[in-house]
Amino acid sequence: MSQTKVHVRFQSVLLVICLILAAIGFTFTRDDDQLFSIFFAAFILANAIGWIWILYITRPVVRASREAYSDDKDYFGLAELEIVNAHMAGLWQWWRFGGMFLIVAAILIVSWSDNVRQNVADFWYQWLPSIPSAAIKSLLPDALLILFIVFAEGVIWTMRAKMAFGIRAIDALQSDYVLERRAG
Prior knowledge:
Blueprint (H helix, E strand, L loop, with lengths): L9 H20 L3 H39 L3 H15 L1 H22 L1 H14 L5 H42 L10
Helix pairs in contact: 1-2, 2-3, 2-4, 3-6, 4-5, 4-6, 5-6
């Protein structure tokens, strides 16, 4: 009988614990715009820090993989690695997080400043007179949360599709062609 060992990283266990705590936190703060906004901002900040940590721990793996693919003259593998690396560490990620932080800042502001919230509601009431200003005011944090989800998930799923199409194209080419590196 063979035994299979399962190695679990401490960081993986910590991540699962944090996600469970986040779910509990979101559940308990869902009816309080102010508490929810603080909790949500902390969650998004932790998400960004986690992404930076992932880049830090995977950078040596990417570098070693890049060298191995080059040494083996596996240029299709190298091209796929570069696509995945551009997905994980690309400038687009910084823009995505910047947009996410701007929307979270808006959520914090409308949740904590009644004056700003009323002014924003009044502005939108001019464009949507069929919706009472009070209704707009009460829906602002939720509308911003929906905007956050559409933006953050829309960007990441678009980039995931771009990565998947790139890898599929390279895989299709690999079956019919030989790839060589240009001199220089």
